[in-house]
Design brief:
Shape: rod-shaped
Helix content: 55-70%
Number of helices: 2
Number of strands: 2
Largest sheet: 2 strands, antiparallel
Order of helices and strands: EEHH
Strand order of the largest sheet: 1-2
Number of domains: 2
Distance between the termini: 18 Å
């Protein structure tokens, strides 16, 4: 263990210290654990997958509506709206839950 100079106040600090004891400058950035990195990856993938699911789902739900009668078109439109709201609800609740996990696995400054 050796001593280094703080870039802010030039105080001698241990090279393993995360903060300068005199001025409080962050010397070493804390890193996420393996579980934290996995949670972040899942959060990002979830937010990439959800708009794709929404677009593909809405496209499939409205496919062939021109050949339907008026009542069938109305039923398809209602079903599409319900499906849209269901996907949106899953997206919001998923983001809340995964966001809380990301917050809990955030690296802590020592």
């Amino acid at each position: 263990m050796s001593l280094i100079n703080c870039p802010e106040c030039s105080e001698e600090v241990s090279d393993s210290a995360t903060k300068c004891p005199k001025c409080g400058l962050q010397l070493i950035k804390p890193k996420r654990s393996l579980f934290g990195k996995l949670v972040k990856f899942v959060f990002i993938c979830f937010n990439i997958f959800m708009p794709i699911w929404l677009i593909v789902g809405m496209g499939a739900a409205t496919e062939g509506m021109e050949a339907m009668s008026g009542a069938e078109q109305t039923g398809a439109a209602i079903g599409t709206g319900i499906g849209f709201m269901l996907i949106l609800t899953i997206w919001v609740f998923g983001d809340i839950i995964l966001g809380l996990f990301m917050l809990m696995t955030k690296p802590k400054a020592e």
